[in-house]
Amino acid sequence: MKEQLKIRTKVFAHNCVKLTQSFPNTYLSNHIKGQLIRRSTSVAANYRATCIAQSKASFIAKISIVIEEVDESNFWLEFALDENLILKENLAFLLKEASKLTSIFMASRKTASSNNQ
Question: What pLDDT sits at residue 116?
């Protein structure tokens, strides 16, 4: 499961980056593009860090960062849609994937927190 999630988060990041390439070249669009690229790539990078956490407490702290980053990625995807920078059909898969990843990581944190007490 860990290796599958490493791949899945990396694919999510790649897909977000590819999506931004279709954004228009405006000040707002460039801002959203930068934020989405930073947050989505951070999901993948921070999940990798989670996989090598040296303690339960470290795992919980790191997975919390992953949750924040995937949720923020979702925010920027929604914002791009709200601003009509992208068509919903071009974004639906990423919105769904962000939601699924958030659920997976929240469940992991809950399990780890329960086992840590």
Answer: 62
| Cβ-based neighbour number of residue 77 at 10 Å | 23
Q: How far apart are the C-alpha atoms of 70 and 81, rounded to whole Å? A: 17
- Binning pLDDT at 50, 70 and 90, where does residue 56 land? very high
Q: What residue spans define the domains of the chain?
A: 2-116
Global pTM exceeds 0.85: yes
- State the virtual CA torsion across 86, 47, 9, 74 in degrees, nearest 10: -20
Residue 6 Cα distances to 3, 30, 48, angstroms: 5, 27, 6
Could you give the CA distance from residue 43 to residue 10 in angstroms, rounded to a whole number? 8
> Domain 2-116: which topology?
de novo design (two linked rop proteins) (1.20.1440)
Indicate whether 48 pLDDT > 90.
Answer: yes
